Amino acid sequence: MYINDNNSLGLLVSENKDLYRAATNANQYVEVLVDFPGNSGLFTYRIPNQLEIKPGDILSVPFGSQQLGAIAIRLSSQPNVDIAPEKIRAVEDVVTSGFFASAYWELLNRVAAYYYTPLIQVIRVALPPGLLGRSQRRVRLIKRQKNQSSVPFLSPPAQQILQLLQDQGAGDYSFAYLQQKVKSTYRGLRELLRHGLVESYLEPPRTTKPKLQKAVILIDTIDRDLTTRQREILDVLRRSGGELWHSELLQICSTSSSTLKAMEQKGYIAIEEREILRKEQAQVLDLDIPKILNLAQSNALATIQKLEGFAEVLLHGVTGSGKTEVYLQAIAPLLAQGKSALVLVPEIGLTPQLTDRFRARFGNNKISVYHSALSDGERYDTWRQMLTGDPQIVIGTRSAVFAPLPNLGLIILDEEHDSSFKQDSPIPTYHARTVAQWRAELENCPLVLGSATPSLDSWVSVNSQQSIVNSQQSTVNSQQSTVHSQQEYLENSPPSPPSPSSPPSPSSPPSPPSPPIPQSPVPSPQSLYSPLPERINSRPLPPVEIVDMRQELQQGNRSIFSRSLQEALQQLQQTGQQGILFIHRRGHSTFVSCRSCGYVMECPHCDVSLAYHQTEEGAPQLLRCHYCNYVAVHPKNCPECSSPYLKFFGSGTQRVAQELSRQFPELKYIRFDSDTTRNKGAHRTLLTRFANGEANLLVGTQMLTKGLDLPQVTLVGVVAADGLLNLSDYRASERAFQTLTQVAGRAGRGDDPGRVIMQTYTPEHPVIEAVRYHDYESFVQAELEQRQVLNYPPYGRLILLRLSSFDPIQVQNTTSAIATVLSDNPGFEILGPAPASVMRVANRYRWQILLKFAPDALPHLPDWEEIRLLCPDGVNLTIDVDPLNIM
Ligand code: ADP
Ligand code: ZN
Ligand code: ZN
Fold first, then answer.
1. List of residues 6+ apart from 408 with CB closer than 8 A
2. Which helix (H) or strand (E) holds 631?
3. Per its Swiss-Prot or TrEMBL entry, what cofactor is needed (predicted)?
4. CB under 8 Å to 780, separation ≥6 — which residues?
């Protein structure tokens, strides 16, 4: 954050303002936000005459015995507190004027209002951690002024400050220090700022000292006395551009420090401490040139590039259709125009691959990565890099939607359907897509939503607009030639295998556009639809084989792998090809199904499966509905077929990995899940090892489904699709369809054709059918009809109240009390109160109430402040707006 407060008219202007203010007695006070551990909130300060303050300025204020960074929120003519005016302390100075551009400030305010969150909490998400609290104001010389010949006339305080800075090597002092040494520091400083001789900045959080780490540098590649192993290590080092972090090299080569030490002694490599550049490390990559787009890609690109200002494009491309290439080419001309782009992705697991592609195209220095797994220092440095205003690309997860890029030209949300864009806790419980829509609107730039399986929200939103576009076709035809109808998407869809008994026949006429369109929480911008219906080079989507696990059991196969999958794994091992094994694993709560007949225990009052509950070892095993709180005891035998194999479902990666080792001892696999990717850089390392052919199989969870482009993968196995199908959530089907389609889409992306083997106990489930035939449209149509009947999003809106407390009785009573108060209100439907599916987390007991209402019912919503008053100390209430997880 380099602040150039060099408005040469500053003093004059503000002096005039003083006169004005004195005359009108306007705005003598400012409420500021202070972020101080245990004491953050709004505080009132007096505005000294010489200062002009606007909301969004960063100020320095006295706080107790300290000086703190603060943000100006509101100006007022009256002090908003019960203190004698003369006791109100004065703002010390403006550190950065207009720090929050007005559009950005507006964005933060909108988020605060829509998600019922105090502004400070929103600001905390937006700013790097600890920026306000820990930062300290500093002053330093501007380097270029050294060669400046004419030094302007300066007042004594200004001269003294300049002298102090010039006498010190680095030319950099804290403001507090200068204050001790020089009288009238403010005046002197302002003068120097005005002449552009110094700049004022906030010091990085204290934890961010330069960080040193051991690096290995290649010195000599001529083999004199290397062992084979050492030779390999040297090759890895050379391929990586001659330099790697010590830890990274150890991990990639599975070698030891002593081996490296030996190589250093022989003079092949050097090991030394280097400062880590606190941007995520990038490997040296061969530069990549733009690919020649196919027709659908060119159309999509043209659609995006034709846009001027705010608009939304849904880029609906099947897996492997080349969406990323469209992003790259849409961004390229923006950089040339001096604009920046923001690319949001669901999870950091996905960033190494994507960032490599961006870096290979645009070069390292144009790309920053911003996500919560960065250290505070990295976040700070990356954030500062954005504020420079240099045209750049920021790739990041959810919170990067707040990246303070000035001059934003485009926002891309890749895999827009992914639920990790939504934050469940802490507040604000924002959805990055919703925030991105506001941001694009406020910055007046296009937003591209990319997915092979668009969320129903985006589908409906574009569908409504599409019918508008269609109805205006006569007038807009000439300009809109690249806007495609969904019908065309269907017609271009790859031919599906012949349809089985009843379900959607691919040759049936395309369904008409969806039913009446709801108002979305975001005012619909111009929404365009751009399909990429085929894979690159017309590669086919992989055939999906469904294996009925009930039959496997009947025929005596008790392994978690069907015979078909076993054969495929065997083959993988023999041919040396590569595959992915997907396991769905989710917390402790899971549904109960019969392994003999596939029967699933469901709630008699709701259309959801019951969740398995066991609070602790020895406690009764209960089945519970998370919507209405119906409870049943876990039956011993299946109510349908009396089989004793009525079990709760769930098999984690670990269990599958054990089973693999037992049945296929020769098969090399890499586990890729949250346990094995916890360390920094582990995602990249594991993927690199896999890409280098060190293993046949990548075994993992959700993380595997998100946009990985591994061309050599021919086999995708889904161990049990059921874990996804029967989650007790109204979105379960949508999510299951998305996840399974995405994971299937990892197969056959390269030259070799792929195949998918999907194991399930309910092969007739509509989601399985839709995944099998890659049939997005029929699935969505059926799903939307159900949503509409029950008023679920995107047709109705939800707000979830989550309550928690260490005291189980207190939280239950509070929840009931709130439900009673709410039930007086006719504006919405109340579901619950019900306990959360995992009722106790970290010793807190959790209950919830779900409010369901029509989008236009907003004025009838309760007064949340009144609701909060019903919560005694110790009961925590979170208001989750548009919740995705109602568990
Ligand atoms: P998606 O993001 O839609 O799943 P990708 O962008 O990962 O698809 O593209 C799939 C593969 O096709 C990538 O390896 C990419 O480099 C390649 N590709 C994309 N567009 C083209 C093109 N126009 N010509 C050749 N190869 C392409
Ligand atoms: Zn049964
Ligand atoms: Zn129920």
1. 339, 340, 341, 342, 439, 443, 445
2. strand 631-633
3. Zn(2+)
4. 456, 459, 514
Residue to probe by mutation, ligand 1, list 326, 417, 453, 709, most atoms within 8 Å of CB: 709
Tell me the two tokens of residue 54: 């606007």
| CB 827, CB 857: distance < 8 Å | yes
Q: Please check the confidence at residue 408 and state whether its pLDDT lies above 90.
A: yes
Token pair 């009961």: residue = 875
Sheet holding 243-245, edge to edge: 243-245, 212-218, 269-275
Nearest to 42 by CA among 78, 67, 76, 70: 70
Q: How much helix, strand and coil, in percent to the nearest 5, is found in the chain?
A: 35, 20, 40
**Beta strands across the sheet bearing 137-141:** 2-3, 198-202, 137-141, 172-174
For atom 13 of ligand 1, the residue with the nearest CA is 322
Of the listed ligands, the closest to the CA of 415 is: 1
Q: Using one digit for the tens of pLDDT, what is the confidence trace for 510-525?
A: 333 333 333 344 445 6
State the SS3 of 124-145. Answer: HHHCCCCHHHHCCEEEEECHHH
C-beta of 710 in contact with ligand 1 (< 6 A): no
Question: Of 536, 541, 708, which is best to mutate to test ligand 1, by the most ligand atoms within 8 angstroms of its C-beta?
Answer: 536
Helix axes 776-790, 732-744, angle to 10 degrees: 170
Ligand 1 contacts CB of residue 321 (under 6 A): yes
Cβ density class 26-46: b for 16+ within 10 Å, e for less: ebbbbbbbbbbeeebebbbbb
For residue 357, give the ligand 1 atom closest to its CA.
16
User: Does residue 709 have its Cβ closer than 6 Å to ligand 1?
Assistant: yes
Indicate the pTM of the whole model.
Answer: 0.71
From the CA of 324, the nearest ligand is 1
pLDDT at 451: 94
Does 445 belong to an annotated binding site? no
Q: Is 253 annotated as a binding residue?
A: no
Angle at 232 (CA atoms; ends 230, 233), nearest 5 degrees: 65
Q: By the 8 A CB rule, do 564 and 520 touch?
A: no
| Interval 493-518 mean pLDDT | 35
Look up residue 740 and give its two tokens: 């399974």
Sign of the four-CA dihedral 133, 135, 139, 143: negative
Among 417, 424, 358, 442, smallest CA distance to 393 is for: 358
Residue 7: pLDDT band (50, 70, 90) is very low
The answer to whether the CB of 3 falls within 8 A of the CB of 201 is yes
